Amino acid sequence: MQTQDFSTLTKKYLSFPINRAGWPFIAAAAVAAYILGHIWGFLGWLGFFATLWTVWFFRDPQRVTPTRDGLIVGAADGTVSAVDSAVPPAELGLGTAPLPRITVLRSLASVQIARVPTDATVSKAVFTEGQFHLVSLPEAEAENTRAAYVFDRANGAKVAVVQYAGAIARDVAFDLTEGQKVVAGERFGVLRFNVEPIKQLGDKLYRRFFKGEKDALCDGTTACNLKCCLNGKNGLSSLHLRSHHLSRIDLYLPAGTTTLVAAGQSIVAGETVVADLASTEAARPFETR
Prior knowledge:
By secondary structure, this protein is of the alpha+beta class. 22% of the residues lie in helices and 24% in strands. A hairpin with a 6-residue loop joins strand 10 (230-231) and strand 11. 30% of the residues are buried.
């Protein structure tokens, strides 16, 4: 491989900008790692890797956004969990008729930056306080904390985005204001994690392993946020953790819109075209290969 090629690959894959919202978390993780390292070297290494993970969590790569009129791009990196029709949340003011909806779930590995799906003016921006259920659970749609936006396109069509907080990443950015003009692919929020669920899990693990409380992780009377379960008569023979998704983003499209993605597909915020309002193309068939 030529030196120039190696340099290009390094620049593309091994270097990336960090969102400014992440620097306080990165600094806190680095300070904690330094202190822990003076207490016990092993803890210092754990803190070091936690710091690296925090840097990775808040990465903010550039995106190449298609700009032809009518194209709607993904609002979040992640996996499409559903393509269906649903009634938008009442706070959006979009009526009670079901609209085409694309639901995307983001995991720990996803870039946590949300992107504007289309050139538009923000006509509605509403933040709703709520619960912090796992975003894959049915009750998350109605009960979780969320930030919702309606984007009015120049031709009058409305596109809406609803970003839900999850069980771990609970701090949903609310960055856009009503009347603000935005363009497709523009950043409009970064998801930030909350230390409270980590503290709760740490307390449960401490009570389980150091105090011998076998039901500390799951007591069977309240829902465990991490969906843990203990098996075995004499202790912990297996610990099952449900696959975690940090957050959920729902994209609502104008009535009659044909979507261009399918459930199970991975999409890239600001780049993947999820719908084309100017196209008459029929629904695409999809196949898992």
